[in-house]
Every structure is written in C-alpha cells, then in structure tokens.
User: Which sequence fits this backbone?
C-alpha cells in the first residue's frame, strides 16, 4: 500500500488516502470545501515516500491526480569465482580439464553455471545478476559439481568473489621390494660380481631410480616412497637388471609382493686334458722302463690332487676328464707333471686342449750293462735272490780252490 496526503492551498489538511492493489490503486478525497476566505481552495496531493521509487504527480483537483512511481532500478551485480588447486601441480594427474560451478540465489539454484578451465586460468564471473528480489537483496552463493579424488572448500562472498579450493586426497606412497637369487653353484666358477644394479620403470619408462644389491645387503633392496598414481591412474612399476656377463636373467613377481631377479649361470662346459707317454729308450734296451708311471694334474700351477696312471696296458695314454673350465671367473690353465722316473730325463710338450706328450729319454751309464729284465716294482724278493746267487757262486769258487790244492 501507499499513502496519499491532501493539501489545501499547499497546507496539509490531515486527510489521507490508502491505495492498495485491493482498491486497484485508486481513491477519492470526498466532501471537501470548495472555498475558503471567499476564494476557491486549490487542492493538491503528496505521496508518502516509497523507497526505491521516484514519484511524479500529474493532473489537477478537478480531473484528478495521477501519482506515478518509477522504480529506481538497482544495478545488476556480478559474482567472481576463482579455482585454487592444492595437488602438487597435478603431480598425480587427477586434475580434470574443467570444473563446473553452480550459482545459487538465496540458497536456490538459479540454473546458471560457469565452466572453469586452464584456458581461462580457472577464473570466471557470473554477470548481470539481479541485485534484489521481493524488495530484498539477493544473497548469492556458489557450489562446485563434485570433483573425484578432491576435497572442496569454498571461501569468500558474492561481492568480493568466491574462492573454490580443491585439495587432493593424496594417495599413499608405495614401495617395491627386490630380491636377487643366484643359480651358479654358490659361485663355483667365480663369475658372480660383487654388486648388481636394478633399474625401476614406471609404466614401462625408466624412472632414473636404481638399487645396488650386494652380498652386504643380502642381495635385497626396496624402492621406497614411490608415487602410486600418475595421470589419475595407478602406476605399474617393473624392474630391469643391468646385464650381468655370463648369466641369464629372469624376473618374477610384482610391485606389491616384490620382484625376484634370478641369475642363472651360463655354465661353462667341462674340459678334458689328454696325456700321452712316449719312451725314447731303444725299446727298453736297458730294461730301465717301469711298468707304470704317474702323471699329476696342476691347475694354474697348483696341484689338483688328481693323477693318471699310464701303463703298457692303456697304451701309455690317459685323459683327465670332467674338469672345471673356469675358476674365479678366469679360464683355468691346466698343466701336468710326471712323478720322477729313475734313469730317464722327462720332457713335456703340448697343451691342455690338444693334449700333453710326456717324453722319457733314457740316460744310459757310461759303460752300460747288458740288457736287463724289465724293472719290476720293488718287493724285496730280488734282494734275497741276489744273496742266494752270490752265496751259490762263492760256494762254487771255494770248491774249485779246494780241488786245486788237493791236486798239488
């Protein structure tokens, strides 16, 4: 409603009219005096001020007055919105390419939205908004359409602007255990290195991270504090080993339970060393040749404890078999020695691959005896026989001397 006051000759009469929608905003001041002091009264009207409106009055007392109220229209308002990300510069790749902000007026959705992106620097403004509704200032607020993996907080106000902060629900870091297994007969051949290097890959791409495994850490290690996610997806971690010479590598397991890197030695084939005996003694003219000789095997100049017995029965040939080819990661150099044979000089030629030839050359006495029977292994029986022969010979000589004396 509005109130209209009646003035007579510019002075309030105290009379008023109340205009409402119910009386169709019309009314009449009735039964008014026409003259005062012998002169016609000039009636005018005034409106009690209506906030937010300008008032203009036209017409006259006879035809009637029209009071026009023109709204002092409020200026439209704007609501700025800014997006702030707290996600380590999208370290895990969860940040979407855009987010949607909804505008509410007095807590009710207006249907208006803003799309914020990196392209608009995550800023936007709701513009040309009504400042008033129902004669009351509208309270504008904002809401964000939910962003997965982020918590949302909103600060500010419609006048200064709203700041929507998205804080990542940061995934826990992960670890990748690694274990080394050697299959090389406890480093029997000495090829095992003192350390090996393991590289970490994320989704098949090198991370630049490495582990050094040694006997000191029991050939175990762990890649720690690793990001669990990239590009909004779980990272698949795998490992690679820097190549280890002389070994084949196989990798089993997974990032969660750990990887096992198994190195299996490309085991060197065993080797053999042939040995041949050659006699240079005029077919045992002097009878010095023994019935057997012994050959010792040396590895890198050190006795292996292995021996061969060569005899006429094996045609003075033999082979050291199933020998290790390598020790300490180096090829073993095999040589042979002969147990000394009396009355012979020994010469050894050849090599471990093609075989060794041991040549025994007799060293005869300056006045060599007649050919003897072949030497037999010493048993003590020969000495007894010699004594018997000497005694028998002595007896014959004594008997002959006795006969000569008797003849004289």
Assistant:
């Amino acid at each position: 409603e509005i109130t209209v006051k009646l003035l007579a000759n510019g002075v309030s009469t105290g009379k008023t009219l109340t205009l409402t929608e119910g009386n169709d905003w019309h009314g009449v001041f009735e039964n008014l005096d026409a003259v005062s002091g012998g002169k016609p009264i000039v009636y005018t009207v005034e409106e009690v001020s209506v906030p937010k409106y300008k008032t203009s009055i036209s017409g006259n007392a006879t035809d009637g007055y029209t009071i026009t109220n023109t709204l002092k229209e409020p200026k439209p308002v704007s609501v700025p919105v800014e997006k702030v990300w707290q996600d380590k510069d999208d370290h895990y790749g969860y940040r979407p390419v855009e987010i949607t902000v909804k505008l509410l007026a007095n807590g009710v959705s207006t249907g208006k939205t803003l799309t914020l992106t990196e392209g608009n620097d995550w800023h936007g403004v709701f513009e040309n908004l009504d400042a008033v509704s129902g004669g009351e200032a509208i309270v504008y607020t904002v809401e964000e359409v939910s962003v997965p993996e982020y918590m949302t907080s909103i600060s500010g106000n419609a006048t200064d602007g709203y700041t929507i902060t998205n804080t990542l629900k940061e995934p826990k870091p992960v670890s990748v255990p690694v274990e080394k297994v050697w299959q090389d007969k406890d480093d029997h051949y000495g090829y095992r290195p003192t350390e090996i290097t393991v590289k970490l890959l994320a989704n098949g791409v090198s991370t630049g991270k490495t582990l050094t495994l040694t006997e000191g850490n029991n050939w175990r290690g762990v890649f720690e504090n690793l990001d669990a996610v990239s590009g909004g997806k779980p990272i698949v971690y795998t490992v690679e080993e820097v190549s280890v010479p002389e070994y084949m590598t196989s990798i089993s397991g997974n990032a969660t339970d750990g990887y096992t890197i198994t190195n299996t030695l490309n085991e060197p084939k065993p080797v053999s060393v042939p040995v041949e005996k050659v006699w240079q003694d005029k077919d045992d003219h002097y009878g010095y040749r023994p019935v057997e000789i012994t050959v010792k095997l040396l590895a890198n100049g050190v006795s292996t404890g292995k021996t061969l017995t060569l005899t006429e029965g094996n045609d003075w040939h033999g082979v050291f078999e199933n020998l290790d080819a390598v020790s300490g990661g180096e090829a073993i150099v095999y040589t042979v020695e002969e147990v000394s044979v009396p009355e012979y000089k020994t010469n050894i030629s050849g090599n471990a691959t093609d075989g060794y030839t041991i040549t025994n050359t007799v060293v005869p006495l300056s006045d060599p005896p007649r050919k003897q029977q072949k030497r037999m292994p010493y048993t003590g029986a020969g000495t007894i026989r010699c004594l018997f022969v000497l005694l028998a010979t002595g007896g014959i000589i004594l008997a002959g001397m006795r006969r000569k004396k008797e003849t004289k």
Observations:
- The CA atoms of residues 270 and 282 lie 38 Å apart.
- Helices lie at 381-407.
